[in-house]
């Protein structure tokens, strides 16, 4: 019995190695040597390739010295009971739009939030209007709708637990959360 075990183990190991080697393709991506953030995704499904690119790091495509500071900002704030974008946020959203247009594999979740005042239902709707306002602006500026997901958390996830105007002002926001291929801001 022990002899069979000792013969079967090496055979199993060799067959696993051979199977893995037969499926592995050599790296032929020209960017693999010139771009340290690129990975060879040939032979992978679209989703697997997207995940591999995301794991490899961020993208510098569409990132300029002029828009780095705006790309670093990932929160847009709103006035009380409003889903109107402020003039201050247009440059931030424009920088993110330019990055997303230049990086078709990038995906972003737009999460809408409110302060604690008002009913849960009202705040869920207001958070959604805020997220949709940001989504609409990005789409108007050339971003593919499939790169965006608008979600509302209403008053459920405050960033500041205070019960005053300063806390409420921080909580009235949309967060821009990159889920795939975020900007490289080095």
Automatic annotation (TrEMBL):
It is a lipid-anchor. It is found in: Cell outer membrane. GO terms for biological process: cell division. Residues 1-22 form the signal peptide. Residues 65-182 form the OmpA-like domain. NCBIfam families: Pal_lipo. Part of the Tol-Pal system, which plays a role in outer membrane invagination during cell division and is important for maintaining outer membrane integrity. This is Peptidoglycan-associated lipoprotein.
């Amino acid at each position: 019995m022990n002899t069979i075990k000792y013969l079967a183990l090496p055979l199993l190991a060799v067959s696993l190695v051979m199977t893995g080697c037969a499926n592995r393709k050599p790296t032929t991506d020209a960017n693999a040597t010139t771009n340290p953030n690129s990975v060879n995704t040939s032979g992978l499904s679209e989703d697997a390739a997207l995940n591999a690119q995301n794991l490899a790091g961020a993208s510098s495509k569409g990132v300029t010295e002029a828009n780095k500071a705006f790309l670093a900002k990932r929160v847009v704030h709103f006035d009380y009971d409003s889903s109107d974008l402020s003039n201050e946020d247009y440059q931030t959203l424009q920088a993110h739009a330019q990055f997303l247009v230049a990086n078709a594999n990038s995906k972003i979740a737009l999460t809408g939030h409110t302060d604690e005042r008002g009913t849960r239902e009202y705040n869920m709707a207001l958070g959604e209007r805020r997220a949709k306002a940001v989504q609409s602006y990005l789409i108007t500026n050339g971003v593919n709708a499939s790169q965006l997901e608008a979600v509302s958390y209403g008053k459920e996830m405050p960033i500041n637990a205070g019960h005053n105007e300063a806390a409420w002002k921080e909580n009235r926001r949309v967060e821009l959360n990159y889920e795939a291929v975020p900007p490289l801001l080095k």
